[in-house]
Amino acid sequence: MSAPVAELTRRLPDGGADIVDVHDAAAALTALGVTDHTARARYGLPSLHALSRALLAHLARGRWAPLRPRPHPGPAALAARWAGPAAALVASWPVVRPLGAPAAAALLLVAAPAGTGLGFAAAAVRARAGRAAAARLLAGGFAVAGALWCLASLRFGGTAAGLVALAGVAALTAAPVLGGVAELLRWGVPLSVLAAVQLTPARLDDGTAARVAAAALVLAAARLLAPAAAAPREPAGAWRTALAHGLGGLAAAAAAVWLWRTFGWVAAVPLLAAVPAADALAGWHAAQRARARAAAESVRAYRRRLRRLAVTTAAGLLPLPAVGGALFAAAHRTARDAVLALSAGCLLGGVLTVAAVLAARGRPLLGTTVAAAAPLAASGAYPHLALAAATAAGLLLTLRRGRPA
Amino acid sequence: MNHPALRVALLTAGGYPYRRDGLSSWCRLLVGALDDHEFHLRTLVDTRTGPPPYPLPANAASAEAVVVGPGARRPGTAGAAEAGVAAVLLCRGLLGDERHGAAMVTDALRRLARLAADDPDPLRDVALAEILLDAWRTSRAADAGNDRIPPPRLGVGDAATAAALLRHACRALAVRLPAVDVAHCVGGTAPLLAALAAHWRDGTPLLVTEARTPLEQRPGEQRLAPPVRAALRLFRRAVSRTGYAEAALVAPMSAHHRGWILRHGAHPATIVTVPPAADPARHPATPELMAGPSLAWAGTRPGPEVHLLLEAFAGVLGAVPGCTLRLLCPDAERGRLRELVQQAGLAAAVRVDAGGDPRRVYAAGQVIVHLPGPDEPPQRIVEAMLAGRAVVGVDTGPVAELLGDTGVVVPRDSPADLAAACVALLTDPDRRAALAAAARERARSRYTPAHLARAYRALYEDAAAPPVRTEPRHEFDLVLPAPLVPVPATVRWLAREPS
């Protein structure tokens, strides 16, 4: 008897996980087309009611398993997904390098808000309206960003390169939201091989390598955003969320440009490592919070999990400011400008990581304030101290208990 | 016989006169048929809606789409403690056993209705998610009994979602009705809550028409997590149970719905089954078109029944080459329906139409296939019977009892049987014509606006009549346990009704 009932359970939506009593069971069986006659003929039970009770008994056995929230990519996978776009940049560096610093800064000011804002908004849309609606929001948002870049490129040049870069940012943003991190990692393999080949004497023609890298990035983005084709309209409020989080991205991009102009290109080197690290840590933090919300069965248990998560996240936030502080101390002994610049880069990387984590905790305005206030405060007499103070303040805010549910 | 003119508040959930669907056309028929009564049409919606697509009849004194929202609290009012007690009663009642749980939910809703008089969002200051989690854990630990199992595990996130939905639902208790003689609720939890609040606050008698069962899932709810769906369903069922117990009369549209209502605590003496109706003048029989064999289906949204239909139609095409299928669905679902047709590889033989009126599609088919969706009221089968076409229905809900022996009824889970029934009718014009005529005659004799008007006129009068004294007569109590619930006049009227 249990085998036919088990087969029946598999036909129910979600395996009958929402069935609570015999009325629910009878309604679910009726929706499958089971009648008194079917119950007698196929299941050997006298009535639909008897079959409903048999179904309940079967379902009751599975009700004691602990909650298992949806698995999510770990921080290493989140950070590693940057490898593909980074490799594409390396492979096409001889082509994009002549575009110059102003174009790169302008592109950063368009791409960072788009990636940050649309990433958070799409995650919220996915939870409410599904994957296709999130893909539609991302596709629409990056189309708007592309149009903005086309306008900006009238002054700075590099229209095609900028659009390809935006496709890369779109792929980076879409992968964790739409469940495509593994796919983006797979795209990263040939791109990394291409970049490695370009660093050897057996390199391809620069133009060919750049075209191959661009095509791979655009294809990856198109594949990830493909569900947008059959998507319903995004829920109300999605664009407002994108704007709130986009301001944080804009503040971070502005801070990076400030660092570059104040301390030179050396200072931006730590940011190249800090940005993927910040993104991975913030993504992991958000996923852990979501897991805690899904798995905790009481508010007390949820708060306990949040406290542990805050401590772990704070530990993850410490290394970059610590390196920045150590470099600052070393630079004072050696009085080397390059070391001071690296120190500033590390410290700003710490600030941006803290800001990203705050945004991931549902505090986008606080994150924006931290990211924007740091360069403003650092434009005074002691920029390193101001950046360290901003990091410390952000760390304290991170350790504070968040909203319970 | 003189009937008093009554003022009736007709309550729907996003329906008449603001939406065109099966239940709205039933409401329209009812309001039009009872032109001596004054109707106040109220439909409860979540977002603002446009003007009504239906022209309002002269006896509709007012029509309003009431947006159920948080609103502003009246200054100087505070009821956090009372709301907290109500929330605990509500959550524990939802998960309690049928008798005690129902009493707790009724108590909770009464308290919330009182609070809602001053605050449109009576649960705004209550940590509802925490209370729900607590009740859920207690319920999982308790002995569930034979007919119940522990509810699925509920996490904090899902509890927050469920709490937000319950909080929103309870805002319907704040909806104010005009001064009327009867509040008539036609389906939906939100209108029932509004009617219950009016009943408790102002003593407005309540009449409930049940055309759907509250277990059925609303569009979009399949996205919710199973425990959230379970919480919503328990809430809807508990509200229905309260509504059935508090209503002066309950009018199911079929024996199928009557059975549901009886299983959920309604007193048999308060239940009067009134079958659906459609106007034969608006649904004239049209001669079959000479365009070849064809089937027709009209539905509200593409659900599992469309898969069944398409699978069966593939079988029909094998036996009757050149057969076509006309489908009708609301505008919003047209793309999804086309997608399903393309996935089934039947695009060449299937035409998808969009719009509210099924008459055109029914006229284009030789056989109407009636596969009601999960939340579809039984109105559409009567329209199908009036179309002058043979009807093949699946055995679900009230289809078999309404169709009787004037159509073909096949099991719900058998596309082969559905295909065989369609093929048999498509290849036998005489039987097709005989069944079509019989179905139309059955609808014309049983499911007419005149029947509907007569039944509801009596129901309104009964519901609006002053309550019969039910105080126990102590001198008789000792010797004869007389029934305390009087049999309503409607039931007496039905007993007199010639068959």
TrEMBL record, chain A:
This protein's UniProt keywords: Membrane, Transmembrane, Transmembrane helix
TM segment ranges: 102-125, 137-154, 160-177, 208-226, 238-259, 265-287, 308-332, 338-360, 381-399
Protein's UniProt name: Integral membrane protein
Organism: Spirilliplanes yamanashiensis
Highest classification ranks of the organism: Bacteria, Bacillati, Actinomycetota, Actinomycetes, Micromonosporales
Automatic annotation (TrEMBL), chain B:
Gene Ontology MF terms in the entry: glycosyltransferase activity
Domain of life: Bacteria
Organism whose genome encodes this protein: Spirilliplanes yamanashiensis
Domain DUF3492: 7-268
UniProt xrefs under InterPro entries: DUF3492 (IPR022622)
Pfam families, sorted: DUF3492, Glyco_trans_1_4
Descriptive protein name: DUF3492 domain-containing protein
